[in-house]
Each structure stands twice: as structure tokens, then as C-alpha cells.
């Protein structure tokens, strides 16, 4: 059990009263308080897709439902976030709430990229371990912030640049790594030894 002093408060914004009751009971069973408003973590479902402005005002967000959340939350959630499937287990839900409250990005195993090959397997496949990928120091900084789950806006504040500059660097990182999403960029960066988490 997590020490009570480190537990977040949770606000539920779920469309189904039955699901909300189940989530409330699960969280209460481990000592997490559910509040009517102003929780440190907001738990939402697919009805919140497209409500970016409201999500941006929340601290941390846990979204349960569509896999589309994995692409939406990194852009709109100012704090940590979790994108979970509608059939998430109680342990996954609790991990998502605690991870998001801690400022982490949480994805279920089904949305994670496949594990990288070991060095021996890489050599057998004639795949270079580091590839010919060279990132500029700023691109490395941006990739590191992506690995921390920061949004473009937060990364811009962290680096002291504009959000447009961060978007430019993110696109350059995607292009150099041959990926199309933040999760894939982080996974590929870890695989190539360009970033560690």
C-alpha cells in the first residue's frame, strides 16, 4: 500500500455511474480520496475526447477508453497522464492514477512499442545498434523532455523557447528516428541509446 501522505486526490468525470462507482470503490480500497472537484488527478472517458481546453486546465489526467488518448494526452495534459483501455485492470488503473499524479506518462503494455532486440540479435539481423541517427544537442534535449512526458508547451517553458520551436524540433526528431508519435520516438531513442528513462 502507498503511504497516505503521497496519495493524490482524484476527481471522476466518467459518463457511466456504474463505472464511476467501481472506480471510486477501487480507489477508496487503497486509501485514495475521490473529490467532487479540484482533484490532483482527473479521470475521464471517451466523452472527453475533443475537450482539450478543459483537459489542459487539469493537473494530471487519466483517460480510460479509446487508444486515441495516447496521441491526444501528450499534447493537452499539462501534468502527468495515463491512457488506458476500457478493459484496464484495477492494478493498471491504480498505476495510471499514481503515475499521472507523479508527473509520468503511463501506457498499457499493448500500446508500448515492441521491446528492442538484444545486441546479439541485432548483430544477427545486421541492424546497427546506434544507426546513423545524429541528433543536435537541442533535439536531444527535446527528446529527453518527450521521455518525461512533457507537452510542447511545458517543454518550451523548460527550454526557454517558443512552442513553435519545440514543435519544429519534435518533427525533426520524428523524421530522424523514422517515427510518427511521441511514444515511438521515446522508444526508438531508448533503443538507440539517445535517451534514458
TrEMBL record:
Organism: Deinococcus carri
InterPro entries cross-referenced by the UniProt entry: Sig_transdc_resp-reg_C-effctor, Tscrpt_reg_LuxR_C, WH-like_DNA-bd_sf
UniProt keywords, alphabetically: DNA-binding, Transcription, Transcription regulation
Keyword Transport set for record: no
Lineage: superkingdom: Bacteria
Name used for this protein in its record: HTH-type transcriptional regulator MalT
Domain HTH luxR-type, chain residue ranges per copy: 128-193
Keyword Metal-binding included in the entry's annotation: no
